[in-house]
Amino acid sequence: MLKLAICVSGGGSNLQAIIDAIESGAITNAKISVVISNNANAYALERAKKHGIESVCISPKSYESREEFNKEFISKIDSYDVDLVVLAGFLVVLPEEMIRKYQNRIINIHPSLIPSFCGKGFYGLKVHEGVLERGVKITGATVHFVDEGTDTGPIIIQKPVEVLEDDTPEILQRRVMEQAEWKIMPQAINLIANNKVSVIDKKVYIK
Questions:
Q1: 108 marked ligand binding residue
Q2: Catalytic residue flag (residue 128)
Q3: Which of 52, 75, 146, 151 has the fewest CB atoms inside 10 Å of its own CB, making it the most exposed?
């Protein structure tokens, strides 16, 4: 049984997609051990409580230095003995020590087709603003393993989404979530939980 830690900062719609997929059987051989947020007011924490999932808040603002927070954050993750850390809208930069320790055991969802509209500065609505400013016709979402770079880790799954002429960033954001993010994050977790994913030379191979 793959034990998951889901890290969130806001509403937790991707968390809900994962919970729903586990409860429906779309994800097998996995369970959520803990939901962690850096934001005490994140609705994602309420989602976890409604489903009987342990939830905790640990914020950099509560510590005198980032080093102290990093140490406590890693310690908290370690304490749950999880197999996979899932970043589902987590707006905190992970300490490199943790990325090394959990190599190919941390995944992230990004709301574009990497390597387009990713990297430093591209997060949240800014991604979709960039897509519309450039005038691309197809965008989408990507689930990838996390490495020391920003959105540079091995890609697991991508799903395209059409960009429409009358889209606003908010409308496009919602479509990407509904048509791509909420589908491929559970798919990726299910593949990993059932030993279908391997990483060789920074590339993902799916059995």
A1: yes
A2: no
A3: 52
Structurally, what CATH architecture does the domain formed by 2-206 represent?
3-Layer(aba) Sandwich (3.40)
Q: What is the pLDDT of residues 99-155, one digit of tens each?
A: 999 999 999 999 999 999 999 999 999 999 999 999 999 999 999 999 999 999 999
Contact 138, 148 (CB under 8 A): no
Q: Binding residue per annotation — 12?
A: yes
Rounded CA separation 4/152 (Å): 22
14 is in an annotated binding site: yes
In the chain, what are the domain boundaries? Answer: 2-206
Q: Is the pTM of this model over 0.90?
A: yes
**Contact (Cβ atoms closer than 8 angstroms) between residue 182 and residue 176:** no
User: Which of the following is catalytic: 51, 110, 128, 144?
Assistant: 110
Query: Which residue type, as a one-letter code, is found at position 94?
Result: L
